[in-house]
Every structure is written in structure tokens, then in C-alpha cells.
Amino acid sequence: MKRLLVAAAGLLLLPVALLGAAVGALGGGADPTTPVAGGGAAGLAVAAAQAGFTGQGLRLAVAVGLAESGGNSTARGPNPPTPGCPTGSVDRGAWQLNNCYHPEISDVCADDLGCAAVETYRISAGGSDWTGWTTYTSGAYRAHLAAADQAIAALAAASVAGVPPGYGTPGPCGLSPATDYAKHLITALFGISDIGGCAVSGHIENSDHHPDANGQAHAIDVMVGINTTLGWQVATWAAVNAAALRVKYVIFQGQIIDFREPAPSWHACRDPSSSCSRNHFDHLHLSFEPNA
After folding, report:
1. Same domain, yes or no, for 202 and 265?
2. Which of 16, 125, 261, 278 qualifies as a FRET site for 90, CA 20 to 30 Å off?
3. pTM higher than 0.70 for the full model?
């Protein structure tokens, strides 16, 4: 864990513009077919980067979202009557998008981090105008800048540096460096410690959970229970950072994205009787490429 925190701390020293450019590997524009859920600083950073926020705009998007809702994607804030809204109004979602001043945004969109981030990008003129948010005009967002910086730095760590040295656990049933590094990142970023790894039985034939000739497995199972929003948050993060993290494929809730395909995209598992379709609802499966 200390190795990860040192890497993230180093990124906090980067100028905002450079840090924003590094995080560009997380998204570079929203993909409406990619599920985005979850919350907190990490969830806001993933969704905002995917929506196109960079640099200072990305930093403010996370800080404002934290100030508005704590990163709660389904938060609600009722308001009394105001000019133009004589019967009152409701602020919705992580960025508290108002249903009276922005009736074009549905509740479903406001409650989905990915969709809400796209609308926030539009309303804020690409992250350059935050005067529509009271936590910005009041300065309340400033108390959340450090948390925003930490989330952005940690999410950018893999994109900037790839898999650093020092990771991997020894056999006869250990984890490869990329697999071990991803496990540490997921615990640090999302607070999940229940993560399965190497296993000599209990998985399909030739599973990446089985140790290879070096005694190391190339897969983990990230347990999320009934918290499917958290599961999609981790799955989305792993998918957008697949190249740097050496992700081979991700499976969750009957959906898979396979980076060995020419044009990877989320789609339903093709065999309804397969492990892919049936066994990944309380956890997500991440497989990783062999060591470089």
C-alpha cells in the first residue's frame, strides 16, 4: 500500500495542466454505452474524465461534486420557491442538477454519474464556468480540493507509470505483478479488501485464477455483494485504464469487455450457460495479460 501512496503523492506535485493531461487516458470523451456508477471522489474523477474534463476543469468538477453531494450519485436537495420556480425545485445527483432550471435533464440521467458528468460538462462550458453551482460561488468547494487532487492523482498513477516494479507475489500460488498491482489499487481507491486471487480449483479449466508455470495467477475476483453501483465503478475504471494496467478482459453482471478483440466494447456474454453469464453478479472478474 505504501508504494501506491508514494506514487500518488508524487503525482500531486505535478502542475494541474500536466495532471489533467495524464488523466486524459481515463476517458477523453463520454461513451454512453459504458456503464458508470458508484460515487465518492474516485467515482466523480472517473466520470468527469470520461465526460471530457481535463486540467483545472477536472479538478473543479471533482471538488464541486464533493461539495454538492459528497459524491452521492442519487442525492436529493429540495429548494423553496425561487425566481422562475414558484413551486420550488429539487437538486439531483452528484452534481445537484436542478430539475426546474434544467428540466431537459431527466432524473435517470441526473442519478447516473456518466450521464450527469456529460450534462455538467455542457452546463459548465467544459469546466470553465461554475457560477451555476452555489458551492463554487460560496467557495465551499475549496475544502474539497485536496480530496479531488488525491483521487485524480491515484487514478492517473497507472496511466502515467504503468505497473511499477516491486509488485507480484511468489508461488506456488501467488499473483503476477500486474494482477497484484491492480489488487492494491482497487483496495486503495475503492476501499475493497475482499478480493480473491490465485486458486488451484473452483474455477473453469484454464482459468487465469490458476497458477502459471511461475506459480502466479493472472486474475482477481473483486467482491461487491449487492452493491452493483460499486461494481460498475470498479469495472469502468479497469476498462478505461486497461492498456496501462495490462487488463485482458473484465466480466460483471453478465457483461464482458475483452481487450483482445479488435474494437473492445461492453456486450452480453455470448454463451448464456457459461461462467461469464452466470457467475459474476456479486463480484467482478478481472484477467490480466502475462508479464511483459
Report:
1. yes
2. 125
3. no
